[in-house]
Amino acid sequence: MIAIGSERTWSAGEVRASLIDRKEIALLDVRDEASFADAHPLFAASLPLDRLEAEIGERVPRRTTPIVIYDNGEQIAALAVSKLRNVGYIDVGVLDGGLDGWRRSGGELFRDVNVPSKAFGELVEARRHTPSLTAEELKALLDSHADVVVLDARRFDEYRTMSIPTGINVPGAELVYRVGELAPSPTTLVVVNCAGRTRSIMGAQSLINAGIPNRVAALRNGTIGWTLAGLTLDRGQTRRFPAVTAERAATARTAARTVADRAGVVRISRERLDEWMADETRTLYRFDVRTPEEFAAGHLPGFRSAPGGQLVQETDVFAPVRGARIVLADNDEVRADMTASWLAQMGWEVYVVEDALSSGQVVIEPARRNSESAAPPSGTKAYKRPYEGTDNPHDAMQAYLDWEYGLVAQLERDGTHGFRVI
């Protein structure tokens, strides 16, 4: 046990061993987000010093969690340690040599943000050979009025900014739940897109894993690929998924449960959840993976809104404590099961609460910062994402795609990920 106020320096080897052994650890980069995006270890989470005290309680909820802080010579890691101890965190130390120490130890460095999810998405495509179409191929199908439906797996605000013509917004975790309403004929080709690659790949593979009868493909390189092909994106669209009939919901429930079982997802009772909430030896994240609107209408006490597709996309934002428990809630379990199936493959200890919202013990709480979007608050030097917005240079978009293609090789060199693909 480390005494309050004691100093601790973690070697890169100790951090790697904790990650490989699935022991709880939060590796926090306290530089600004733009610097983080230049280079960081795979499972590091960006938590800039100017946001540290405001966000640490939600992102690292257990005060005895081992926390490792690093910078890159800016001399702010020690200040971050002091701030965390002042608000009650006990086991806080620094990475020996900071980012350069990680590099000198042979540790792999990754660019961009949300890298664990993006790297995992590339691994899924490599292992499962997820079908895809080019922008030109999809455009020809649309122009010929072929039997095809385009489902955009991003957040609604991203979709509204720019979208593929005819595309309908169906955020990732909703795909298996909603696809029967949007493609009722098994002859309809279902194409899933996002801005780049990850949510396209994982959205399409979700539908394939669930065994829907339709042919499914990811739009290769998403809206970036569409733009680089010289094609025009729509702006300001508001097409969203419809309600689901009871019959199709039941079909989706069976399919999602089968996928979750294959991934090794475990179901727990409300009583077991209560026991874990009282366990001070483990970090417990509780997420409601339904839509933000459903969450606002009522949810289990203490659960945070984390729509499933975005939770999988941004695990480093929502759950920076690697090795923690994650518990998901959903009224019909389809979205929880599909979300949990991906988290389990990414090495998380993840559970679904059975009959989570059927007991009537739901609450309506005051509005909080929207968990659906992880955009940093103003005042933080943010990383300019080359896949969001409409004014990105073509060379930046192409460079981003080239980087994504290299992520599987980086995973192999890194060796800490623990990913598996069913």
In short:
The protein is an alpha/beta fold and 422 residues long. It has helices at residues 12-20, 33-38, 52-59, 77-86, 98-104, 115-128, 135-143, 156-161, 175-182, 198-209, 222-228, 246-263, 270-277, 292-297, 308-313, 315-318, 334-345, 394-405, 407-414; strands spanning 9-10, 25-29, 45-46, 67-70, 92-95, 132-133, 148-152, 168-169, 189-193, 216-219, 266-268, 284-288, 304-305, 321-322, 325-329, 349-353.
Task: Explain how this protein is built.
With 422 residues, the chain is α/β, with parallel strands linked by helices. It has three domains: 1-111, Oxidized Rhodanese, domain 1 (3-Layer(aba) Sandwich), CATH 3.40.250; 120-247, 3-Layer(aba) Sandwich (Oxidized Rhodanese, domain 1); 255-353, 3-Layer(aba) Sandwich (Oxidized Rhodanese, domain 1), CATH 3.40.250.10. Helices cover 40% and strands 14% of the residues. It has helices spanning 12-20, 33-38, 52-59, 77-86, 98-104, 115-128, 135-143, 156-161, 175-182, 198-209, 222-228, 246-263, 270-277, 292-297, 308-313, 315-318, 334-345, 394-405, 407-414, and strands spanning 9-10, 25-29, 45-46, 67-70, 92-95, 132-133, 148-152, 168-169, 189-193, 216-219, 266-268, 284-288, 304-305, 321-322, 325-329, 349-353. Strands 1, 2, 3, 4, 5 and 14 form a six-stranded mixed beta sheet that branches. Strands 6-10-9-7-8 form a five-stranded parallel beta sheet. Strands 11-16-15-12-13 form a five-stranded parallel beta sheet. Helix 6 (115-128) crosses helix 19 (407-414) and helix 9 (175-182) packs antiparallel against helix 12.
